[in-house]
Amino acid sequence: MSLSSPKSYTAVLGAHSVGLYRRLREGSELLGRAEFNTAQYPAWPAAADALAALLQAHAQAGGELRVLLSNHFTRVLLIPWVEQVTSPQELASYACICFEDIYAEPAAGWTLRLSPEAAGRARLAAALPDELLGRLQNQAKSVGWRLLSVQPYLMAAFNRFSTAVAQDDFLFIVAEPGRSSLLQARDGHWTSARAVSLANSDAALNALIARECALQRLDSAESATVYLHTPGRLEPFDSVAAQHLDRLWPLGQGDDLLHAMSLVVN
After folding, report:
1. N or C: which end of the chain has fewer CB within 10 A?
2. Strands 178-186, 110-114: parallel, antiparallel or unpaired by DSSP?
3. What 3-state class would DSSP assign to 71?
């Protein structure tokens, strides 16, 4: 019987390409990456096919796999507190109703993961395609690996940087190319969770921050701190819109978007 620890891997399903990394004590090592066709909608089946080929090419028995999903493939929403919802089953049903109300489509076919919160507080929810989760589980199994987690990028990034977000009032932005995801809190309570399509430029990002700060000032005399995570972008970003802006790691990690994304996975 081998006493060595199983090798650990991270797969990143980006908006246009997939990367497979071996997790090291410090950082990660690229094993392979592949582009996929984004013309079809949804694009995640093509991403899953690209990952399957990478797994087959680099399979070694006994591996452990964590998968990070681009915000392009997940949906985020806020589940308001309702006193009448008292059981896990009622909460799950209520979350599905909220999903259908926001996205105007049935919640069937999506897995909703809710953040644990104290009574009286709204919860964050991330929705992941059921079929994609099933395919990832089968792909890992087919190469003899154990699938440890499938993490939405927005949630993984917030968890990674949570110790740096030392404020009860903040706006947390993950500016992934083509899509920015936002979490907002006031007095330690979640107040908003959403994603918007956004061009990959400083001008577009500044416009988004300016709009959000203007909305904050409607609710409060002082703007909250903006925490900004821009994976794969090394150039300086100076917001002309935010009074308090804190740009979060990773910086100086190269311009490889998928590698930068992989580093947030715990």
Report:
1. N
2. unpaired
3. helix
**68 and 153 in contact (C-beta within 8 Å)?**
yes
Does pLDDT of 175 surpass 80? yes
What CATH number is given for 8-72+130-154 in this structure? 3.30.420.60
Contacts (Cβ under 8 Å, ≥6 apart) of 58: 20, 31, 32
Architecture of domain 165-262 in CATH?
A: 2-Layer Sandwich (3.30)
Q: Distances in Å between the alpha carbon of 13 and those of 47, 153, 177, 238? A: 6, 10, 13, 29
Specify the higher pLDDT residue, 244 or 9: 9
With a cut of 70, say whether residue 76 has pLDDT above it: yes
User: Which residues touch 62 (CB under 8 Å, ≥6 apart)?
Assistant: 6, 7, 144, 145
Model pLDDT, residue 201: 85
